[in-house]
Amino acid sequence: MSPLAAASGFARSIVLALAFLALPAWSQGVRVQEGERVTGVAPKSATSPYLLTSEEEMPARALRLVSPTAREMRSLEPRETAFKRVEIGFGREMAESAEDGSARALVWQKVGPWRIAKVRVTSPGAQALRVGLRIGSTREPWEVRVAGSADETKALGPMRLGGPLGKEEIHWTPVTEGEGQVIEITSPASLPEPPVEILMVSHLVASPSDGFRKRVQEIGSSLSCNIDVKCVGNPTQAFYDIANATVHLVFTRRNGGSAMCSGTLLNDGTPGTQVPYLYTANHCFEQDSAPYNTAAQVQEVASTLNTYFFFDAVSCGSYATPPYKQLFGGATYLYHNLAQDVLFVRLNDWAPAGAFLAGWDATPITAANTPVIVLHHPYGDLKKFTAGVVTATDLLDAPRTSPNGFWRTAYNQGVTEFGSSGGGLFTLANGRYYLRGSLSTGNIFQCSARLANGYYVGNDWFTRFDVAFPAIRGWLQATGLPDFDVTDMWWKDASESGWGINLTQHPSGQVFAVWYTYAADGGPLWLVMSGGTWTTSRTFTGTLYRTSGPAYSRLPFDPGQVKLNPVGSLTLNFTDADNGTLTWVVDGVQGAKTIRRLAF
After folding, report:
1. What pairing do the DSSP bridges indicate for beta strands 524-529 and 539-548?
2. What is the pTM of this model?
């Protein structure tokens, strides 16, 4: 990371006193949100006790790549950038890197009620590995379990993939430790072999067991002046709470390159929902230069997200591997802003018990030299603590062109580094900590250079949560949002096969329903519900419509001929995330059925 010369025009200072003369109207009266401890909702992605088959029962087919070239390793060297994201992995395509004679085709074997394929993918020298699978469409979803060569007795999964519409073009398996990964794919034996192809690997040069410290020589490890959270003097429960809201992020791009950042879980305004919203820096998932990512491209990266909870030192000064929790279900894109360097997503897994959803303050920091702390994972290392003050707001160079600027900080305890990007900036009020932004960029390089006042030479710049808040308040201060995401196919059970209802839930909570059933004459009947409302966090109701329009073969399609004819109402009441009741009125006829999720 090279110095950012003042002459380059990188930062054009705005004196705080002047910046606060004209506060946005929406900033007045915005309430401060308290944090909330996660009480134990079971995450979807979990550690499985074992693969379904042992090596003796079903040997894994070997797929070995050649050793990485020097050119591949050089792709991880530090670049001339102020971004504090750190690259830890590079992509290797099977077509180019597989050893001669290495079997690439999957071999399927029937084992009881299952059809199973098992392969061991090895990239020599990798500290950890991810494998990119191409997923095809199938009548039923198939399951994937993986285990790393560092400990094949510990499996991750099952992950349910595929289904009628398939998924992403490439699905990345979870991060496992070691140079090899065993992948076990299962589907019902009564169905044809599912279409799956192994395309590439992400060769990681760092892994959790070594604190993500093993990497190419030029990158190094976190600086000695960084302070473990377990070394903070006289910590309060409020401090431990926000430490448990800070997570280590590992994600992979389409080309197989993997990187690390930090992020903070945020609480919403509805007690008990415990939705795992994550606030971090946009450049973590972003391209390094134009053309920058669309929302769909950000979602591609979000789908690969692995989060590491409780990745803290066991005790002050200890380098032992902590009992961390890895989630690998990815995240759902909600919002990003290139100019503000803000990224806001929702984890697809519930946060584990003991985690914390941080409180936040959506008002500007109005006092110069306001004390702040930062929690982050420099170089993916064990969680660190940094303390200092906010000294000003600055305008930054493109692409971070937010006219409201970024918080400038100076530190007298600890610093930040690559991998710290997205780490939360917190202020203390009434004994509690509140998020005020996330780390965007900086120019601090060493621990030895200090000014006469005891502060380290250099500065960091943080996103402004108060500026981002209007765009994300619909999630954080929403009313009437559901307790769970109901997107899926729903039906009664196999005794009534032949009808069902498809629910698609937007991140805002709005649900679009398509109900396929039969009319009085036995013919097919398609009804849709759009524009309904959540009357409680588990009850959604709206108007049912019968649609008509131009024939599919009539080109060009004329949307003006589409008609929505109201025929009644539909109410969905969910008893839990996978069960509920469907109540309707159609053409004056009332009815009700129990429904359950048919996951694809």
Report:
1. antiparallel
2. 0.79
